[in-house]
Amino acid sequence: MQREEAPMGAAAVIALAEVREKKQQAEFRRQLHARLDCWLEAVEDQMKEPKPTLEQLTRAVWDRRQELTGSLTEALLEQRYEAEQGQRSAPCPQCGRPATARAVVSRRVSTLVGEVEVDRPYFYCVLCGHGFTPLDASLGLAEGRKQFDLQRAAAKLTAEVPYETARELFAELTGIQMGTERLHTLTNAVAEGLGVLDVAPTRSEIAQQIAIVAAGRRQRPILVLALDGAQVPTRPDTAQGSRPGRKKQRAKRARWQGQWREAKGFRCYLVDNDRIVHLLSWHQIQSDEELFAALRQVKEAGLMPEEEVRLCVVADGAPWIWHGVAQLFPTAREILDYYHCSQHIHAVAELHYGAGAAAALEWVEATMARLFAGEVDGVIWGLQRLPPATAAAALAIDKLIGYLRQHSHRINYGAQRKAGYPLGSGGIEAAHKFICHARLKRSGAWWYVANSNHMLALRCAKYNGTFDRVFERYRQTLLAKSQQKNVKK
Question: Which tens digit of pLDDT belongs to each residue from 288-346?
Fold first, then answer.
């Protein structure tokens, strides 16, 4: 069979197009080299010493780095959007009729790579009196000067350090100034409306983690649900207002009283021998009902696949926790925090035998050993026959008896340990430390509840590995709002 060859005319057209493309690429590279030469000349002019140190060289390059990267970005933009920048007609987003380009309007935006000048054709529809620049939407530009890459970096930084420190670090690392008020507003805007499913990993991501831990095991892996609360500093909403001078600020501060409130949360993680594999955390200043409503969303979304794991719940003796757990996870294994139980035993020993007494220590060790062996009834029997030394000791003994009876089915520590389950709530305590305490418990910091919950949501997203997804949600929301402004309602 003979191969069909392209007609001579068509081959000539293809060859001409290839030549034209190569010429365009060569011209583009020439422009890039010219920009680089200009930048090098500027750096050399800045260097006064004939033999600068390495630090002086790196400082000169660092100070002018964004002039180069910003200039190269402009060149790339002009190359990739040459057709759009030369566009002469575009449909009006309000009436759909064709509109003619009136002029080229330049817009200067700030990005992580520096200042970028964007030349965009401006269109005006005579019939509906609407002006628009379609290139903005094509490039995904934010409405303000500072673009989304800067906003993402700023929000990530404020989720880690105080706003003033974030301002200093942001300016030092990017060369761009962003005030604390702007950082504060941006952070709250990114976190606005976030719920537990917005910051949670996807079902497939969690399934992948479960599969990794389950590999090579005969039994299903252990998934731990730990619940607890942490105290965080808050201020009343009535403390809002303008920012007066220092003296007036102190007087205004005296009019309101800070309050420590409980940020209730939960953490889900897998047990992998001697380490834990974090899956999901969610912490907010919220009621019991709100916490378990969030936990119900997690369950209904399939993020805690009980058929693929051995689910256990570890918590202290708070009744609200176990009441909610019994309703949501009736088949889960329940474990009372070993160290929380130990605190109750120590409290009775100190009141009965005296703080620091050798007899108190011996009694605590013997009692905890019996509880570890599952002899809860035996410990209760002994407590009922223990003659209290004082009236306070008698009250503490009665309280401990009720406590052990209430949690008797959660105290078989020896069997739990043998089966591989954790006995303590260290996992949730650690989560409180690196999610709540590290950012909210700062010297002099008193948070409005809404702002506190925004910050907690962002920190949960960070440690859940979903921060970029959260920011993309924010970016798409702003772009959608911007597009709606150009569309007739």
Answer: 999 999 999 999 999 999 999 999 999 999 999 999 999 999 999 999 999 999 999 99
Q: What angle do CA 301, 305, 311 make, to 5 degrees?
A: 125
Q: Which two tokens stand for residue 185?
A: 């507003």
Which two structure tokens, joined as six digits, stand for 153? 């970096």
Interstrand relation of 447-448 and 222-235 (parallel, antiparallel or unpaired): parallel
Tell me whether residue 402 is exposed, middle or buried, using C-beta atoms within 10 angstroms of its C-beta: 0 to 12, 13 to 18, 19 or more: exposed
**What distance separates the 2 farthest-apart alpha carbons in the chain?**
112
Strand intervals (E) in 8-158: 89-91, 98-111, 114-125, 130-132
b/e code 295-308 from CB counts within 10 Å (16+ = b): beebbeeebbeeee
Q: What pTM was estimated for this model as a whole? A: 0.88
* Residue matched to tokens 């605190």: 343
Lookup result for tokens 């062996």: 373
* Whether the Cβ atoms of residue 36 and residue 44 lie closer than 8 Å to each other: no
Q: Name the token pair of 9.
A: 């005319």
Q: Coil, strand or helix: which one is 114?
A: strand
Helix (H) or strand (E) holding 367: helix 358-372
**pLDDT tens readout for residues 157-186:** 999 999 999 999 999 999 899 999 999 999
3-state SS, residue 86: coil
Tokens 């430390």 — which residue?
Answer: 433
The answer to whether 344 and 396 are in contact (CB under 8 A) is: no
